[in-house]
User: Fold these one by one.
Assistant:
Number 1:
Amino acid sequence: MVQFVARRLLEAAVVVLLALTAVFSLQFLAGDPVKLFLPTDTTPKQIEEFRERLGFNDPWLVQYGRFMRGAIRGDFGNSLRQGEPALGLVMQRLPATLSLSAVAMALALGVAIPVGVISAARRNSWFDHAGIGATVLGQAIPGFWLGLMLIYVFAVWLNVLPTGGRGTWAHFILPSITLSAFVAARFARLTRSMMLDVLSQDYIRTARAKGLGPPRVLYKHALKNASLPIVTLLALQLGQLLGGAVITETIFAWPGVGRFLVQALLNRDFPVVLVGVFLTAVVYSGLNLAADMAYAWLNPRIRYQ
Amino acid sequence: MRAGRRLPLNRSGAFGLVLVAVVAGAALLAPLLSPYGPVDSNLVRSLEPPSAEHWMGTDQLGRDMFTRILYGARVSLAIGLITVGVSGAIGLVVGIVAGYLGGITDIVTMRIVDVWLSFPFILLALTVSAILGIGLQNIILTLIITGWVVYARLVRGEVLALKALDYVEAARALGAHENRIIFRHLLPNLWTPIIILSSLQVAQFIVAEAAISFLGFGVQPPMASWGNMLNEGKTYIYNAWWMTTFPGLALVLTALGVNLVGDWLRDTLDPRLKF
Amino acid sequence: MLRISAALVAALLLALTGSAPAPTAAQERPLVVALGAEPRNLMAMRTVDWTTNVQQMNIYDRLYFWDGMPPRIKPSLAAELPQTPDDLTWIIKLRPGVKFHNGDAFTSEAVKWTIEWLLDPKNESHYRPRFAFVESVETPDPLTVRIRTKEPAPILRYWLVDFTVQNPNYVRQVGNDVAARQPIGAGPYRFVRWDRDERLVLEANPNYWNKPPAIKRVEFRFIPDFSARLASLLAGESDIVKDIPPVAVEQVNRSGRAEVRGVASSRINYLALVNFKPGPLQDRRVRQAMNYAINVDEIVSNLFKGRATRTPGALSSINENVNPNLKPYPYDPERAVQLIKEAGYDPTKLEFTLDSPSGRYPLDKEASEAIAAYLGRIGIRVRVVVNEWGTHLDKIINRRTGEMFYLGWGPALEAQGTIAELFRPERTYSGFGTPNLTLEINKALPIVDAKKRQAAWHRIQVMLYTEAPWVFLWQQHDLYGVNKRVTWHPHPAEKVYLHDATWAKR
């Protein structure tokens, strides 16, 4: 077990390193960011001075070495736009993203699992058909469009919910619905198909034959056995949620990492982009590892290899 | 999928096929279905609501929305098909090489795949397109760069499983040439999972293009793409609902159609696959 | 499972809402200004950036500012307009009795400190090049600043406008980094809190030298997406939102919550006709033809719904140095074709590339496409390339644009900042130049005498009109959506001074 985790951690470190190297190299393909941050009357001489001070005139390898030495110490350089350490700027925004993702995930599970279970238990009922319809639709609606429509209807037209920003619990409603729609649809479908699998197994029939009530059979026996793939998917989808946050946060002015990264990409603020890459790679690797471990824990037949 | 084998059609699969056929028809027949051109502007008639003349209204430059949606279908389908084709081919080759050769090749390739997969798809696509700049070729390139890994991982897994099968092992033991093993024994068994994955990827790519264009990194205006139209339309969302509603619906219905077809293909061809 | 997830949601919500400050009923609701981005920093005289400066200006106040219509320079922290006893000396008298938010006195020492601070390269101030000609700053007494320049620098008069002043004691004590996050100025509002990517909260400075602001608490809220800003205005969450699209004006006015207040901005939009590379646009007649071929008035009335003011030349109508005698080129496509043929070209064989930004200026992309359509009517094929902002600037700076590019320029209330920057080939954003023009501009720059200077700029504007280095378009109108509970008027130099805002009487 320890050996397994250690190996995976090492692999994760390699992944993070490779990701940083790739993006660091790619930034040289994009246009020169320096002029974007200087006023229009800056003379070419001053632009050159500025580049020199930032070390942009050094050869690629020198810049790369400097960046990596800094990155190991947690210093990713200063944001070009704001002149503050990029890592701090991104970290400040992490809680907002995590809280929104957590609420969205809770919402997705809270809706999807009951829907999946009930659909499976009452296969081919009207509930099942409606549920399938909703999940198919949920997977087809792009988040950004859903977000726009929700703002239009609930915030502007009916004026019952805030249009965006953070503050009260009401501010969570629209962005978390937008963010969770796709994930909820996936979970509901997966839960349903897993439950259908499990419900056809012998031991469930036995439990039923023993006279156990349907709720007990469903929740105690069937759901427990169906939970394996759901947990795996959970970890992976949490990662996708962080990705979805990019668009949701921009539309809803949510002060999180995703929106900050989009702005950094638009501004070519590469130190910030690199911190974003670093954090995403770390979080993603962590989630993948967690998924594998949860899988092994729930299913003792799997050996660590 | 051998010729002659019948695919039993269910209701949702049929509905999906109809939707896809409608979108494909719109894309192919765009010039015949509308008297306007996709970039013909007429400032005097800008932002008109839907009418008999302009079924879906006009945009801020007085361009016919219906026409632009038809031509947008071309862009979406072209992007979806090209990116799926190319990234599928790359993924197929990489996956076979990694899975078949194994050893250090496999380890290195899979670490690279992990790097790719260690990013949310949309964030990776955004980063690449921000670096490459906007334009149709660049968005296609972006989606290929970000898309091939899914195939590589799938194919590798399938190859590993196939390699362990008795008849492949037997063929190898008999000293069959590697090309023969790959082309005779592996490839035919890979088509089904690839087709299923592709059908689901098409929808993802189409939506991704729209999302990237929506954020302002995507296709070059004035080209009509649904994402572009939504990006332009959101400025006018409060006084020209048709500019966001129709492209959005087109996108949803296309994604829906492709997804339904994908589901149907998976359920009929290979129900054990879980994507 | 249901119960668990419900409990989880409840716990999360509790944890999250606990951290956010709940507005108390007793507190007056703040005035909310929605902006696209948070400030880059809050350090006076460090960064040139519209969003950043708009917020700083309310905290720091400034020596001079543009006031009225047409805008004229008025003193604010200064007591009177600067005096120039000779071409190299500038004397600024300061307003007595002004105090910084922490009680320190505002004196000539602070102005001297700020100029020396921005000239020090290690502070990385964007303003350093603008003050490069400063020889020395002296403080004969606490209310007098004497600036000596190395060469005659009439432009200094304009660089002192919107000059924000640091508090030297405070900056020395806490250092640049802290001062840039928690500013102390002498302006109408003092700093309360800055929640990153959410809001900057300010409260009225009761000791402001001018009467204390009527609105006690203001918030700048950061909403990156334009449609989201518009939504927040329509929903009544924001009170002031800039850049309402002309076509949405009616919608906002009909909402019942807000109305659009417009002002003809000093910012001009133009289509540059680049003459740096060999090609038809090096011929003056072809450039003039472009001006005849485009129906600017129709674009203004149909696309902009009249929310733009046509400019006949390179300066806006509210520019101090504008030559009022110029008349716009009329729409005359036949004349255009004739001129092109005289120059030896066939209009139907001409092909140009037009680079346009997207969403940077009102309807920029749309205007570019409309322009291309007009040129198309006389047979010229124009390929419009729409760029994301960074790419667009990059192309202009590195001279990689097509033969035409679309750009906005401002705030421009005097001639030098426009003409000397855009019509001399060596300047960063220039797209045009002739040796003769450069010569004339260089002659005008050092003229200190106001009348002679004015005459020189007027003459150059006539030259520009004939040279047709641009298709002269319009000065944009800045359209602000303003909640009806607020009385506030927009400013032609794109400033959002909240000092003048009051709650509307019901």
Number 2:
Amino acid sequence: MLYREAGQFKTSYASDAAIFPIAQDRWFVIGLLLFGFFILPLFANQYLYTEVLIPVLILSLAAIGLNILTGYCGQLSLGTGGFMAVGAYAAYNLMLRVPETNLILVLLFGGLMAMLVGVLFGIPSLRIKGFYLAVATLAAQFFIEWAFARVKWFTNYAPSGSVAVGQLEVFGVALDTPMKKYLFVLAMVALLALAAKNLVRSRLGRMWMAMRDMDIAAEIIGIRPLHAKLSAFAVSSFYIGIAGALWAFLRLGSWEPLAFDINRSFQILFMIIIGGLGSILGSFLGAAFIVLVPIFLNQFPGLLGISMSTALISHLEFMIFGAMIVFFLIVEPHGLARLWAIAKEKLRLWPFPY
Amino acid sequence: MLGQFIETLIGGLLTGVLYALVALGFVLIFKASGVFNFAQGAMVLFAALAVARLAEIMPLPFAIAIAIAIMIALAYAIEFLVLRRLVNQEGIILFMATLGITYFLEGFGQTVWGSDIYKINLGIPREPIFLFQGVFPGGILLDREELLAALVCALLVAVLAVFFQVTRIGRALRAVADDHQAAQAVGIPLNYIWLIVWGVSGIVAIAAGMIWGSKLGVQFSISLVALKALPVLILGGLTSIPGAIVGGLIIGAGEKLAEVMLGPILIRWFDLAGGGIENWFAYVLALIFLLFRPQGLFGERIIERV
């Protein structure tokens, strides 16, 4: 009843090409952002900020990055953790060596450095694909992890590569409480997600999708594989790098290369599989799912009055993730985002489906 | 110096044999079903845990027999619950499904069998063998377990080669590997064949798991070390059993030699905080190799433009 597009006529090219062509969608997104910026801070507590909201937002950003590469351009990558580490340590180095730089510039620098490294490790994708590429990106993951643990200059001669950032501030406002950190992350992620949403509908995004769907056909209609694939690696690593820098600066505060190990790569890959390959919305849904399930598993036995050891819970977590992955691949390869789309479709016909 | 070199080389080669054992399981499944089975490492862990825990309550041969039964049941479950439902999907989807299986098995194995470090005792004397004591000062040190690993590996390869070349099932396996549809058309039951290969690679996983386990103790890290089998495969070729062996030997020897020979040089040049280049050496070697020879040393040439 409420979700109808009847009567919403597109009278200009601009409205025809809008991101959210249906007014209800537009209002929903605006409402969600207003809720996130103004209402949520009224009642959220520290736990909600540091354990739920900030991780979900930052990992969503990383998932968007990986989704651009894997979901939109079809290049499987297992090196996400490594690229996040590049972003984090590059940002740390800029902050260390040029202390008066604006925090936003620092984060962007992290993204840019990750982009460079991403393009470098993306070069093999011009010759190989599929699981061969997955092994190539594993090389990136292990090499980068090692480099930050061993090359002393990157970590300012800190033992075992563990570094920390002090008080952060942006435009004179100190990011000292979880709420301020959350608002900053939310603003960054909202802007970058909007950019990504636009990017995938642009010429570049269509090039990636053509490449993913059939590379030879794409080449024949005049898409250069070099251009398409390396641009996907570049944009993807840029997002992942910024996510890595945000994760290190605003979530962890002090970290070591182990924070960006291969399990991080898998975690983000799972987010996009469960959330939906080739969907920006899916990146958020997947990130929320992967962050919330362990929290739920930790609380749930307590609520039922069963006591479980932490080891057992972590093993159950593994099992549930594994089973979920297989389940989603079999039942709904397009993930949670697809379920959402189906629900919307049903809602449009409700209450008179034909 | 030469003595040290040879000792490192042999140590590396024997580690390579262990990589090769894991890689062998990958190759078997890839050859017969085109599935890039990421879960092989988890299967090795699962098998090793099963043998280690069962051996605590019964003699080792019984434990191994039951472990084999368990691995075949597992192969059946994977075939029935996962593969059968993903027939005709793209390779990359199947690959991601095996990632899911990996996580499930890691969690399941540790829930069922426990997550401490267990020891598998194969009853081999601990003390190492010294060779060529007259030629080099101190001689060359050899580990008996590693020699056993090499023997088991050679035996497995021989048995598998005979199995693939001579038996009826082996021929069916090769037919399925060549062309699923054609094989099905001449009456080869695909599900049955998949069950067999997953079962066989489960048994290979038991062999790998027991040797790893007796060397390092059965623990979670086995599953991670098994990731090293991936560069081995790239180097040797995804479809070649000899390739898995040769690739394993090259990677094993290469990374140990790199650690000992290249490590100090890198540390000096780049002012590193310690070596550890064996963590990535195999992958980077595979990466470079991929650029020049994507089909690997012995793999079938893939005629697929990218």
Number 3:
Amino acid sequence: MTLEEKVIGIIMEQLGVTKEECVPEAAFIEDLGADSLDLVELIMEMEENFGITIADNELEKIRTIQDAIDFLRSKGVS
Amino acid sequence: MTTRRRVVITGMGAVTPVGNSVREAWESVCAGRSGIGPITRFDTAGFQTTIAGELKNFDPLAFVEQKWLRRLDLFIVYALAAADMAMADAALTAETAGGDRAGTIIGSAIGGLATMETAKSALDRGGPRKISPFAIPAALGNLAAGHVSMRHSLRGPINCTTTACSAGNHAIGDAYRHIAGGWADVMVAGGSEAAITPLGVGGFNVMRAISLRNNEPEKASRPFDRDRDGFVVSEGCGLVVLEEMTRALERGARIYAEVAGYGATADAYHLAAPPPGHEGAVRCMRAALRDAGLQPGDIDYINAHGTSTPLNDLYETEAVKTVFGEHSRTVAVSSTKSMTGHLLGAAGGVEAVFTAKAIEEGVIPPTINLDNPEPACDLDYVPHTARRQEIRAALSSTFGFGGANAVVVFRKFVP
């Protein structure tokens, strides 16, 4: 499974959205209907799955699915 | 002073250990069927009590999306289910319920206990960053009412009563007062509970409050019987839609019964034990009758608190005798907890549903397992089988830990 597939799988599960909605440019809040609590939970799930820690100030950079994937890559996740 | 407005029940919903709808639950209690069985919710190894009244074949996905299911404690899911059913039963929608003039009060003794236990485990295992952001909003007791208000656009008064085993009755009584006093026209009210968890069962065990009759679950809840040994923890939700009478009549709503009065008192005595003679319950029943403008002789049925604990059943019987005098020999008194177990904060909600059905249909559900009545318990408890009998008015009693008593009076509706 590619990183993209793993990330989208987590997003589908956490936010209750379809695969079709999970295009790279989809924004979590504006397009996928997440609220601030959803985002916290989503980040916790990513930390759990990929064994990393995401600092609060890094969160601000993650707005879209592509942002999340880029961020994970920058942390050495593949 | 303005005249008090009359309040009627126009819808009901319930999920209980004896059925996942009002119809199913009512059929079960009229047939004398117990809903108590072995606990399946958690591993009971090491627990003194291994039985409870769990919901059976309840499908939460019929009421809540998968995404939300992980974020709601079961007591909230049960309330959403019962509220959907109650609103449909009342033929009300988010558009027609009344918006700013419609509200909700849903009580819960403990709130999201399972959620708190899970969050504490996560904290112990992985530290504070592992606590779910939904732990607090799923555990807060008032979030049953919160989610119900969101789903049905109930934008008037909202509240949550947390008076232990009286929470459901306090919710209904307070909601009745909101409508009677003119602050709202429609209120969804009752109680919801989901405390069949390790901490819930273990906690009641060390209080010596619950039955140890693990080998005979269906016989464990035996109110007023000589061999009773505590209550049985149950879960579920019972809600009623209360509506101002003229509004209900104008829209041609089905009316189950009228809520005629409400009494609330405190024992101011002990954290768990009732006072001798249950004088707090005596004052509460009297206050409710006074509020309804009824005499003891007007009451044909009492849905008792009847928990199956040694003290409650004895003292509640004494209290009924004190309030009803001569009439205590003829008034029918039954404990539907003999079949449902004790739904704690949801008890008043579910028992309001049963009391309203009893009035509507003229059928009194029985007290099962009353094989050898305690000598001092000598009222007409409608043992073993249901009885067909016209009911003019009825009381539903609940007495909670902390000395919190609440009694609601229901009356056959006559315009």
